[in-house]
Amino acid sequence: MKSGQLRTITEDCTYEGRKVAVEKELDLQKFNVRTDLALEAKELAERPGSGPIPGIHSETTEDDGITITMLHVENEQGSQAIGKMMGQYITIEVPGLREGDTKLQDRVATHFATHFETFLQRLQISKNARVLIVGLGNWNVTPDALGPLVVENVMVTRHFFELMPDQVAPGYRSVSAVAPGVLGITGIESSEIVQGIVDRSKPDLIIAVDALASKAIERVNTTIQIADTGIHPGSGIGNKRKGLTQDILGVPVIAIGVPTVVYASTIVNNTFELMKSHLEKQNGDTNQIFGLMNGMEENERLQLVREVLSPIGHDLLVTPKEVDQFIEDIANIIASGLNASLHDAVDSSNVAAYTH
């Protein structure tokens, strides 16, 4: 069990008619902060003044409202420190996406296409490699419909290569796409459906698209993560499911995710931070109001809030009321970026024209 998942507490017990104090360890694993973003996991693992986390290397660049963080989990030590698999992660943060600026959306799609191509090169995926795009999620639930919406908008070409290969123009590759649904609809694990498709269609690469969970309200529907580690359906909401990874499927898997939900405990904790910041500006002293919580680290405070909310069923999953438009916009961004990065014939300078 990772450090920070156990807490020693003192409990009064009755022994031979007398009350005695007994120390025991409380398992906090079920109260740990859940986030699918490697960047957030790194932020939670960092300690003020402790320096870089061993085994984790990250670089951040900015381009007029678009922040790109490249994070490399280099070894097992780094993996254990942040609770993420070893591999490469790219996070594209664009707070301005909430404003519905179509020009900004086109710029984000171009950035996405450029960085996705680096993953293809790193995995040595050739120009004629066959690609299967898997849109995970429940198309009946808007915050979970990202994967199916991306599948609707990507350019699929495998049938042309199968039926009329001599008529396919240069600059295209064989791409197929499927939205396998969720266990509650099909009664079958998504990974089992994908495994059957992989066995028959023999793709050289799988691209899995899924909705994620974040610990930060400002990152919901404004952030895209690309990872070469595969994906575990339902992990963001605490489900333990068989994942889509190279070890399981025998094919390289690139995962694309967007946080579309946040926990109520996160909102409570973020509200605490905002109140603390506001009061510090007013009188500079917050100890009288917040007491012991003032000295807690963020992950400790989040654990405490979840410890209170979870037993009474109040740690709800929350999504913005404008999620319908957000999810459609960001699905178009990802689909157009994929079209440009997978097909050389698609103009990468105007990727949005292929889905809008």
Automatic annotation (TrEMBL):
Keyword Protease: yes
Record propeptide residues: 1-36
Substrates-to-products reaction catalysed: Endopeptidase action with P4 Glu or Asp, P1 preferably Glu > Asp, P1' hydrophobic and P2' Ala
EC number: 3.4.24.78
Single GO biological process annotation from the record: proteolysis
Keyword Mitochondrion attached: no
An example molecular function term from Gene Ontology annotations: metalloendopeptidase activity
Keywords in alphabetical order: Hydrolase, Protease, Zymogen
SUPFAM superfamilies: HybD-like (SSF53163)
NCBIfam families named among the record's database cross-references: GPR
Complex and partners: Homotetramer.
Biological role: Initiates the rapid degradation of small, acid-soluble proteins during spore germination.
Protein name per its UniProtKB record: Germination protease
Natural source organism: Paenibacillus paeoniae
Taxon lineage: Bacteria, Bacillati, Bacillota, Bacilli, Bacillales
Gene that this sequence comes from: gpr
